[in-house]
Write a structure and sequence with these properties.
about 120 residues; six-stranded antiparallel β-sheet
Length: about 120
């Protein structure tokens, strides 16, 4: 068994978003997908993102307000998830004044990347 502990991992921060990538954990390179946790600070938003990977995101805390390319915003509360298709642009907003949004994302190439880890930038 491998334990991936977000609280002891190295994080990077860009604007209102903090990211903890799974690549830093022992054993993560054996998985058929990439993974990360990210949080969006209260009142913050991620940058617009679009990537070739398919992304499954599970909201662990707060309410993620996911903005699609057409401007539609969908509220996704803790305990729920959202699936983004390959190359689907999106922004994650947090309108709460005091609660961060915490998300776990797994991502993979839809047609099978040779190492199946995708190429994520966030």
């Amino acid at each position: 068994m491998h334990v991936f502990n977000r609280s002891t991992a190295q994080a990077s921060t860009t604007g209102a978003v903090q990211v903890v990538r799974w690549e830093q954990f022992q054993g993560a390179d054996q998985l058929p997908f990439g993974g990360m946790w990210y949080s969006v600070a209260p009142g913050g938003s991620s940058a617009k993102d679009q990537h070739p990977d398919v992304e499954l995101s599970l909201v662990l805390g707060g309410v993620a307000e996911v903005e699609a390319a057409d401007g539609t915003i969908t509220a996704v509360p803790a305990g729920s998830g959202f699936l983004l298709a390959s190359n689907e642009s999106h922004i994650v907003h947090n309108s709460s004044p005091d609660t961060p949004v915490v998300v776990f994302s797994a991502y993979w190439m839809p047609d099978g990347d040779p190492d199946n880890t995708g190429t994520r930038e966030r």
